[in-house]
Every structure is written in structure tokens, then in C-alpha cells.
Specification:
Radius of gyration of chain A: 19 Å
Largest sheet of chain A: 10 strands, mixed
CATH class of the largest domain in chain A: Alpha Beta
Order of helices and strands of chain A: EHEEHEEEHEEEHHE
Shape of chain A: globular
Helix content of chain A: 10-25%
CATH superfamily of the largest domain in chain A: Pseudouridine synthase I, catalytic domain, C-terminal subdomain
Number of strands of chain A: 10
Oligomer: homodimer
Strand content of chain A: 25-35%
Chain lengths: ~260, ~260
Amino acid sequence: MKILLKIAYLGTAYCGYQVQPNGVTVQEKLNEAAKAVFGVDCDIVGCSRTDSGVHARGFCATVTKKGSASLETSVPAARIPRALNVRLPEDISVLEAREVADDFHPRYGVASKEYEYLFYNGAERDPFLIDRAWHIPRQLDAAAVAAMNEAAAAFVGRHDFSALRDGDPDEKDPVRHVLAASVTRSGDFISFRVRADGFLYHMVRVMAGTLLEVGRGKIPAKEISWRMSEKNRKLFGATAPAHGLYLDRVFYPAE
Amino acid sequence: MKILLKIAYLGTAYCGYQVQPNGVTVQEKLNEAAKAVFGVDCDIVGCSRTDSGVHARGFCATVTKKGSASLETSVPAARIPRALNVRLPEDISVLEAREVADDFHPRYGVASKEYEYLFYNGAERDPFLIDRAWHIPRQLDAAAVAAMNEAAAAFVGRHDFSALRDGDPDEKDPVRHVLAASVTRSGDFISFRVRADGFLYHMVRVMAGTLLEVGRGKIPAKEISWRMSEKNRKLFGATAPAHGLYLDRVFYPAE
């Protein structure tokens, strides 16, 4: 069998999800725990990379024996979260585990993913939100949040998102299908949620930085569509910091 | 004038509020920031001590020139929070500042204080709640929470709380007036709130540990009153860990 894990992690201490030469990653910690629980070296394949400092509430990853399409274990799926969690650092938690088909691929099989970008709009910083939300001390009023929501709506649809990403503009196909995008306020929090079939490098963070500029009146919401058609990164806002970003949910076709 | 500050802090990194020979305290950090902002050594007097690891959402403290009953400053009260916050570590935040009379005493003048003790009752640990709630993985059902709330109600009134504290039983007058105490569930959180005119050493944490035993059926809610009358610490639960405790609000007579 192949095991699909649903994982939450506080990204602050990690250089993102995926194993890399420098810095500790979430994948590395999962590898160590899986080896201890299943008694063999394992392959842990994640649903995506996440940047350093980005958090996850519902990251998905599969576990198989290293070099194999499956895993033999006597540990029932229902017991796997607890078994892994006692071997994982406190800032990573396996929430669920279930069996999936051997041909299930946690990254190529993704139908869509939903991210939340969290702004904290209280006047003074909140000690309980360090590394968990982007603090914007200056008040964004109801009209500003409405404009941000209008701008978010302009992201929805199948578009060329060349202008809303960082890195090499020729790296890969820049067309993505955004299924939903909205901005809502709840108390001192402003939440930007976006669901798409895939995301370019820094795409959610560039969207979040752009929405802040919309809220501040620097970019009119009505101009989002034509600015996107210009395919010019400079027409959009700064890349929002990683620590406000949460990979919230991953959807697979069967679900 | 004398300045009253309302402060929030994440207690994780601190050996409590009050300056002590070993370990960093919140008071020490406030002293450093106040000296930088007001240009003189200051006395910072807090509304209470808090244990190492305990958090605060509404701690109160006064600032005066060292050895004096007041402070001369050209900084308007409304600007003081921001001025202090840029000099404080991120896990301490001054939320408000206002002028009070020179004879105002932030500790002796307290009418009552309200604490919250937070239990996290999700099956698997939540990485975002490390050091912020006491994780109780085993589900406490509605009947258990109702029993906890019934037990909390038994704390209300003017009682001898000798049995609900740690440390020297002869230390001081053990009578306190609990004005309100309740237990409520919201999603996976169980919150114990208690307001009193004062608290003995570890009193809220012994109450919280006791309420957990009530929820687990080890201590019947109906026995709280007679157990209190026995004045025997052994008839109550273990001291709950510091990291679930929040000093929430401080009330002064004028308010």
C-alpha cells in the first residue's frame, strides 16, 4: 500500500518543504520519522514545494519504501499519525493518514490547491502573531477591503500570470486556472484566499503584495485585468513576506 | 504624570514578568525600552507577577522616573505604544498608554483580574499552538465540559483557597473572592475563564488541572465545595502547565 499523509506545520524554522543541501526542511524530518516508524528508508513525496517560512495546515505527502511504489507495514493507517508525531518535532504534525492506490501521485495528481494569505491589521503588533501574519499597522477600512476583494476577483479564470510571479519569466507555462479568490475581514485580520489548479513561483505572495497596494489606493482594482495582460511584473506590488502564507487545502480529483 | 501601559506578551521566552537575578524577564525589557524612549532610568511597576512561560493579553504596568512618583516627557500618550514597541522585542507589545494619577498603584489598586486557561482538545497536536495551549488529545465530550463548568461554578464566591495553590500553605491570607468562573468549548478549544480579586500562587493552574480531572471523571464536580473545605491540596488535580495560561484583563475601580 501507499500512505497519503495530511500534515500541518509551522514553517518558521524550516527552509521550506523540500529536502535541499543547506538548511533543515520538513521533508527531512518526515523522512527520519518514517524510517523510525516503518523500519525502512522511505520516499516521502510532497504535493508541492513551499518557500522558507511558509506554513501549511493541510499539506499532502505520500510515503513508500525507498525506490518502491508501496510500503509494507503492520501499523494500521489510523495509528500512523500518532506514531509519526511522537518522532516529529512539535512544529510538524501529521493530522491524518490513509491508504491510496500505488499509482496515486501527490503532486501530479493534484486537482487544485488553496492558499490563505493572512494580514494582521491591528494598530500595534500582536506578540502571538510573530511569523504568522503580515502586520499592516495602518488601518484598511471597509472600502479598502472591498477594493481588495474586487481585485482578487480579477484573478479568477484561466490567465497568463507571467506578471504575478518572481524568477525566470521563461521558466515554464505561465497559464494557470484560478478557481476562486476573495478577500475578507474578520476583526483585525484580513484574509486573502485563492484556489487554483497550480501556482507559479511566489504567485500568491505577489498577489498578496498587489492586493495591499490596491487597499492602499496605489493600484486601482479595475486595472488588474489589463495590467495582467501587459505581462509586466513591475505593474504589480511587492512580493509579500512568506510568514503570512498558509497552504490550506489540497484537492485531488476523487474528492 | 504617571503612565499606565497595557501590554501583551508571549511568555515563552521569559522567566515571568518580574525582574529576577537569573533569566530574562518582561519587566527588564520594558525597563530598557522605557529608558531609551524617556531618556531616564525608569521604575516599571506591574499589576502582578506571572510565572515563567505564562502569557498576557492585557498586563498593566506603570512607568515613572526611577525613584519618583511621576515622569516628565514630551511624548504624547498616544505615541508611547509605538515608541516603546520599536525598542521592544517582537514578543512584547504595548497596546495602549494613558495618564493616571500619581497615587495610582498598578498592583495594590487592582479591583480584579481575569485569566484564561486554554486547553486544546484536538486529537493530534497543532503546530500553531506550541506553548500556547495545553494539548489534551483524548476527546472531552459535551457532558465532560458541562461537568467542568459545574465544577468551575463551585469556585465562585469568597472562599479559603488553601487547597488550590502550591507553595508554602502559611504564606499569606488564603481567602480570595472569585467573581466569575466558567468553562466553555469552541471547536477544539476548551476555555476556562476565572475572574477574582486576587490569586494565590499557581491558583489558576491548580484549578485548571483540577477541572481536567473533573472532565475525565476522576473528581466529581459536586465534590469541589467539600474538598475545598478540607483545605488539602492532595484532594485536587495536578498543576496545569504554564503555557496554557493567559492574564487576560485587569480591572481597576474607576473602570
